[in-house]
Specification:
Number of domains: 2
CATH class of the largest domain: Alpha Beta
Number of helices: 12
Helix content: 40-55%
Order of helices and strands: HHHHHEEHEHEHEEHHHEHEE
Distance between the termini: 57 Å
Strand content: 15-25%
Number of strands: 9
Strand order of the largest sheet: 5-4-3-6-7-9-8
CATH architecture of the largest domain: 3-Layer(aba) Sandwich
Radius of gyration: 20 Å
Length: 278
């Protein structure tokens, strides 16, 4: 297909690492088709307006803008999600957090869940779709972010299960206690931000990447407030970073008197999900 070849060559000349996959992503979104359909209908002509859109998208990609922001859509846990620059792009590694949370929600007597720092709503929505008996409160301190999360809730058909609330966990208190708390908080230390890839550092919301300090601020808050957020016998389920970060987070909770901690590995064998019984 001429468009695929054009896009692949265009992106490759600019040093893109995976030009074929990326031009396929853009064309599938532009033409509202699957990858298979893209190649099966390789002779399909596109309109001048579509070509102009594709050229603009390629230009934005060459400038480092993530594909998910260019098309405004992505997939997480097999579900469709809208994205924009107000939300962190859902990561495949966070699917492990969702898997662990689903197992806990389905194996116990979990009726209500709180998702702190919901962002795009990908965790809350995925939990609701896969655990239809639970009710979820998803909070974030950014009103624009919550608008995207509401859109994702509605498009995935779980409006009756999820409520959203604008709340700053550092300044405000939640009124209820929950059976389960999940969170993928900002955990990249401020001094590591400059070393991130350009498309992350220059395009994704900084407040969703880092706490502006050592990457542990939110975990200290959760350790301090966990017993007032979660019922006795309930769970905290948290995503953690790589390297020494998991051990640092574990120490925060053990120092705060929590005894039942378990670390789950992702599919690369890295410690990435910490569960704590309250």
């Amino acid at each position: 297909m001429g468009l695929i070849n054009w896009g692949e060559d265009h992106l490759q000349q600019a040093g893109n690492n995976n030009p074929q996959r990326e031009i396929e992503w853009l064309l599938c979104d532009l033409l509202c088709c699957s990858r298979m359909e893209l190649y099966m209908n390789s002779e399909t002509e596109i309109s001048p307006e579509q070509r102009k859109t594709l050229e603009n998208w390629a230009k934005r990609r060459l400038a480092g803008e993530p594909l998910q922001y260019i098309t405004g859509r992505t997939e997480f846990f097999g579900l469709p999600f809208y994205t924009n620059f107000n939300t962190l792009i859902p990561r495949p590694e966070t699917e492990r957090l969702v898997e662990v949370a689903i197992d806990f929600a389905q194996s116990g007597k979990t009726k209500n869940i709180v998702d702190i720092g919901t962002g795009s709503g990908c965790i809350a929505v995925s939990l609701a779709v896969n655990s239809p008996s639970v009710q979820i409160l998803a909070i974030d301190n950014n009103r624009d972010t919550l608008e995207i999360a509401r859109k994702n809730r509605d498009v995935n058909g779980v409006s009756k299960q999820i409520k959203f609330q604008k709340l700053d966990i550092f300044r405000e208190e939640l009124e209820d206690k929950f059976d389960l708390m999940v969170s993928n908080p900002p955990y990249i230390p401020q001094n590591e931000i400059s070393g991130l890839p350009l498309e992350i550092r220059d395009h994704e919301p900084l407040h969703a990447l880092t706490d502006g300090a050592d990457g542990l601020t939110f975990y200290r808050r959760f350790a301090a407030k966990g017993r007032s957020l979660v019922k006795k016998g309930g769970y905290l389920i948290l995503e953690v970073g790589r390297g020494k970060h998991p051990q640092q987070v574990e120490r925060i909770f053990t120092s705060a008197g929590y005894k039942n901690l378990k670390m789950f590995k992702d599919y690369n064998g890295d410690d990435r999900v910490l569960t704590i019984i309250v």
